[in-house]
Design brief:
The chain is an alpha+beta fold. The chain is built from three helices and nine strands; from the N terminus they run ααββββββαβββ. The protein has a five-stranded mixed beta sheet with strand order 1-9-8-5-6. A four-stranded antiparallel beta sheet has the order 2-3-4-7. β2 and β3 form a beta hairpin.
């Protein structure tokens, strides 16, 4: 079916040339109505509803919910993480200082101070105690001269003479040579006690000019008293003996005093010899 030409089938109507705008076009609906004039209050306004379609109507309601997820699933990552457990307990507040603790601290400090004092006292006693003891004992000792009797404990002593400068003691077969020089002290000992008592020359001390102390030489004393052996036996009460106590001292030195003892625990007696 053919549509009639609105312009008619006039053979004299000019045709459109190729490449040129057509002379007649169909009317445009949008161009037919002019745009509204918003400057006047009488201009009607039409606007689509919020969230609605192009015609102002709301979208249809559907209770089916969103479509199910049809994409790929995430890979399995293993077991679930372990349970972390309950939170740590809140630290308790420190207890207030105890009075007993303070008392124990004070007692500890006092004990430490006393310990230090006692330690210092022991050290001082070991250092100076011997000298102090010797001074006190010397203060209580009785001092006599040559040929004067002096008592100590159960013994009475009398120094008769002192001879120095001897180089050898003994006989031609058994003898001993002095390292320095021998000093021979002629001594008489008498037991004034009520029981037998022994005398030993190792307890008798000699002193030089500068208070240098010398000990007796028991081996040389045996050779010097070979004829009597006076210092080897105990003395009965009332008996007395006379013998020689031998000292080996440096050459050029002399004995100025003797300190004689009846026992190791006695105070002793001092005899001035020069």
């Amino acid at each position: 079916m053919t549509t009639p030409d609105p312009a008619g089938s006039d053979p004299n109507r000019p045709r459109d040339e190729p490449g040129s705008e057509p002379t007649h076009r169909p009317p445009d609906p949008a161009a037919a109505s002019p745009p509204p004039d918003w400057s006047t209050p009488e201009t009607p306004t039409t606007a689509p509803r919020i969230g609605g379609g192009g015609n102002g109507a709301p979208p249809p309601y559907s209770d089916a919910g969103p479509p199910p997820y049809s994409g790929p699933l995430p890979p399995y990552s293993g077991a679930p993480p372990p349970y972390p457990g309950p939170p740590p307990p809140y630290p308790a507040a420190p207890p207030p200082p105890n009075r007993n603790n303070r008392l124990a601290l004070i007692l500890g400090i006092i004990a430490a101070v006393l310990f230090c004092c006692c330690t210092g006292g022991v050290v001082s006693a070991l250092t100076w105690g011997r000298q102090f003891y010797d001074e006190m004992r010397t203060r209580d000792q009785r001092t006599v001269g040559l040929n004067q009797p002096a008592r100590d404990g159960t013994m009475e002593f009398r120094v008769r003479q002192v001879e120095c400068g001897i180089g050898r003691i003994g006989d031609p077969f058994v003898n001993q040579t002095a390292t320095g020089q021998f000093c021979l002290v002629e001594l008489t000992v008498r037991n004034i006690g009520s029981r037998p008592a022994g005398f030993t020359d190792s307890l008798q001390k000699a002193y030089g000019p500068e208070n240098r102390q010398f000990h007796a030489d028991p081996g040389a004393g045996v050779l010097a008293n070979a004829d009597q052996q006076v210092f080897l036996d105990e003395l009965n009460p009332g008996n007395q003996v006379t013998g020689l106590v031998v000292y080996d001292i440096p050459p050029g030195t002399r004995i100025v005093k003797l300190e004689l003892h009846s026992s190791s625990r006695s105070n002793g007696v001092v005899v001035r010899t020069g």
